[in-house]
């Protein structure tokens, strides 16, 4: 049963601390997405990777967020320094490329619930 | 105008009834359409996708797509209390990688 995994599932931290969230995409999927979900904004796309290359991170605050994919089995999202407004659930999703070479279906991980005090 | 619009609900239906969830989108070039179910405190779970005009059935679920009218709907037959969740509509253009999500419709199935 292939699934996207994310760690940690819950994180409580204090303002100014560094937060690192990790994601293991489904084996064989070559696209990875990071989303943030809040009640107010819904699901927001933060970053997109294709074959480990970052193709879009326009949804991220550049001064404090960074996303990397050091290998095909690991994607990371880092916030430094964290702020209370970053409190949200962060989802990683992975998916295959379609026959036309664009991402199609996406499968979500369980999410990391981040609380910044 | 939002790119993908859904009524936030809640849509309340009795157990055994048909629940009808609707979604409209603004980009006429959209090619792929997805329905995700999200239980409270859980992640979105893909339940259906549809690419062509018409109906697509999978068990108790039927997705309907009308590109001319720019709407996509999800019918849930024989609704169960376990179907109570938020249903997210997502739309993608043909050459785009982005899924544009609606804000979701909350469905309540009353026993």
Question: What does it look like?
Answer:
The complex is a heterodimer of chains A (117) and B (111). With 117 residues, chain A is mostly beta strands. Chain A contains no helices and eleven strands. Chain A has strands at 5-7, 10-13, 19-24, 31-38, 42-50, 53-56, 65-71, 74-79, 88-95, 107-108, 112-116. Chain A is globular. With 111 residues, chain B is an all-beta fold. Chain B has no helices and eleven strands. In chain B, β6 and β7 (61-66) form a beta hairpin. The model of chain B has no long low-confidence stretch (mean pLDDT 93). Chains A and B meet through β5 and β10 of A and β4 and β5 of B.
In short:
The complex is a heterodimer of chains A (117) and B (111). Chain A has 117 residues and is mainly β.
**What order do the helices and strands of chain B follow?**
EEEEEEEEEEE
Give the overall shape of chain B: globular
**Helicity range of the residues of chain B?**
under 10%
Taking all Cα atoms into account, the compactness measure Rg of chain B is 13 Å
Which key features would you list for this structure?
heterodimer; A: 117 residues; mainly beta; 7-stranded mixed beta sheet; 4-stranded antiparallel beta sheet; 11 strands; globular; B: 111 residues; 6-stranded mixed beta sheet; 5-stranded antiparallel beta sheet; 56% strand
């Amino acid at each position: 049963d292939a699934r996207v995994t994310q760690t940690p599932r819950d994180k409580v931290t204090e303002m100014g601390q560094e937060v690192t969230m990790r994601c293991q995409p489904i084996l064989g999927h070559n696209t990875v997405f990071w989303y943030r979900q809040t009640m107010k904004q819904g699901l927001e796309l933060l970053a997109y990777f294709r074959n480990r290359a970052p193709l879009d991170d326009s949804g991220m605050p550049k001064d404090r967020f960074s996303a990397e994919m050091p290998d095909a089995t690991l994607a990371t999202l880092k916030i430094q320094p964290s702020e209370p407004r970053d409190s949200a659930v962060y989802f990683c999703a992975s998916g295959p490329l379609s026959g036309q070479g664009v991402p199609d279906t996406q499968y979500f991980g369980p999410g990391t619930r981040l609380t910044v005090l | 105008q939002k790119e993908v619009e859904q009524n936030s609900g809640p849509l309340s239906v009795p157990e055994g009834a048909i629940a009808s969830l609707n979604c409209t989108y603004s980009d006429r070039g959209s090619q792929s359409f997805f329905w995700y179910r999200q239980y409270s405190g859980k992640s979105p779970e893909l339940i259906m996708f549809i690419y062509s005009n018409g109906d697509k059935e999978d068990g108790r679920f039927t997705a309907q797509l009308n590109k001319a009218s720019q709407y996509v709907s999800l019918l849930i037959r024989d609704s169960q209390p376990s179907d109570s969740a938020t249903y997210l509509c997502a739309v993608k253009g043909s050459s785009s990688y982005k899924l544009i999500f609606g804000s979701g419709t909350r469905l309540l199935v009353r026993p």
